[in-house]
């Protein structure tokens, strides 16, 4: 396989699963964590390695090291692997997804932004989602009429904060996730609930038209629920460990144990909460966005540009959602081609900056 984003949490877990199933790694693509990358090279012996920056090439312990976005696309085109695991963060992941599909490869997708921004122009029949929420929905599906698909959210770093404090939240505050440790951007997205908006859009592209919603489940043990038309509801319980969805993406005929089961007696109780617009202002555009999912390119670009400004202390935490909603109201044209997606992305970023 080709692994894009090998040093992030998804990438690290993917390599554990690859080891378990003796899947060879042809290409490793990483960012700036060269020490971890060198360890991965030692353990998995890839044929080719790609890093983000030219200045890091000399520090990589490998004979065949490339750098930059164009190199990622080239290794996908030149590789023999039939599977690409895309765990890149952000809009950067869209072109590799498109390239892999154009090369008739299967894509195990953890890069939300590919579907959020370009879902209208992506053949999802060759995509296996790695997100635990979409894996949960897929796992629950049966040949019965569905009323609604529901995914869960942790609520992010500020789910228990007094709402009046949110405007003064710092970057360090956003990183204090109540349930686990993730990368900087996705943890900010969890705090704003943009992450869940993205996942609802992903679900819409993966599973088609229908009713989609989300709610907060504070222990992150239920990842998805389906309301069937007959009045019954099923829920997918599993410990929050990405190795489970990754294992199914890498090895479709799963018959091995991956995780320990959830012990409901130890869990004792579960708590569910509504996602409200006062704590998560982005939620006010959820319904309209699901009716017009092709506008996802606008919210993704606005979000990435606003997060840059937040990290640089140019805007406050609550201003991230304000900036996204502002851009969403201003940019209403739907992309008619994948070229339009890239053009709108650039225009929205300029506007937010």
Features of the shown structure:
about 350 residues, alpha/beta, Rossmann fold, Rna Polymerase Sigma Factor, Chain: A, 7-stranded parallel β-sheet, 5-stranded mixed β-sheet, 15 helices, 12 strands
Strands across the major sheet, in which order?
4-3-2-1-5-6-7
Order of helices and strands: EHEHEEHEHEHEHEHHHEEEHHEHHHH
The level of helicity is 40-55%
Largest sheet, in brief, is:
7 strands, parallel
Fraction of residues in β-strands: 5-15%
Can you tell me the residue ranges where pLDDT is under 50 for at least 5 consecutive residues? none
CA-atom Rg in angstroms: 20 Å
Distance between the amino and carboxyl termini: 37 Å
The count of DSSP E runs of length 2 or more, i.e. the number of strands, is 12
Name the average pLDDT.
Answer: 95
**Outline, from the CA principal axes?**
globular
Structural class: alpha/beta
The domain tally reads 3
What count of helical segments does DSSP give?
15
């Amino acid at each position: 396989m080709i692994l894009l984003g090998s040093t992030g949490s998804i990438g690290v877990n993917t390599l554990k699963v690859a080891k378990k199933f003796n899947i060879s790694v042809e290409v490793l693509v990483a960012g700036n964590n060269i020490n971890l990358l060198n360890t991965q090279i030692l353990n998995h012996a890839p044929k080719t390695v790609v890093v983000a920056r030219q200045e890091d090439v000399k520090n990589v312990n490998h004979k065949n090291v490339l750098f930059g976005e164009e190199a990622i696309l080239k290794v996908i085109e030149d590789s023999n692997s039939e599977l690409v695991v895309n765990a890149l963060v952000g809009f950067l992941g869209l072109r590799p997804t498109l390239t892999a599909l154009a090369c008739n490869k299967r894509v195990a997708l953890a890069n939300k932004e590919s579907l959020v921004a370009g879902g209208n122009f992506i053949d999802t029949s060759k995509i296996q989602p790695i997100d635990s929420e979409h894996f949960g929905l897929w796992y629950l599906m049966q040949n019965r009429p569905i009323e609604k698909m529901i995914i869960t959210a942790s609520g992010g770093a500020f789910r228990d904060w007094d709402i009046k404090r949110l405007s003064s939240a710092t970057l360090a505050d956003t990183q204090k996730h109540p349930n686990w440790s993730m990368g900087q951007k996705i943890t900010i997205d969890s705090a704003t609930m943009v992450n869940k908006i993205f996942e609802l859009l992903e679900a819409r592209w993966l599973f088609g038209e229908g009713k989609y919603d989300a709610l907060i489940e504070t222990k992150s043990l239920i990842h998805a629920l389906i309301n069937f038309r007959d009045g019954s509801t099923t829920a997918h319980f599993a410990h929050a460990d990405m190795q489970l969805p990754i294992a199914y993406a890498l090895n479709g005929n799963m018959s091995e144990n991956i995780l320990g089961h959830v012990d409901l007696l130890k869990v004792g109780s579960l708590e569910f909460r509504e996602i409200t617009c006062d704590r998560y202002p982005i939620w006010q555009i959820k319904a309209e966005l699901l009716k017009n999912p092709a506008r996802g390119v606008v919210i993704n670009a606005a979000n990435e540009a606003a997060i840059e400004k937040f990290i640089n202390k140019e805007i406050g935490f609550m201003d991230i959602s304000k900036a996204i909603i502002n851009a969403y109201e201003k940019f209403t044209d739907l992309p008619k081609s994948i070229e339009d997606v890239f053009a709108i992305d650039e225009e929205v970023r300029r506007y937010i900056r």
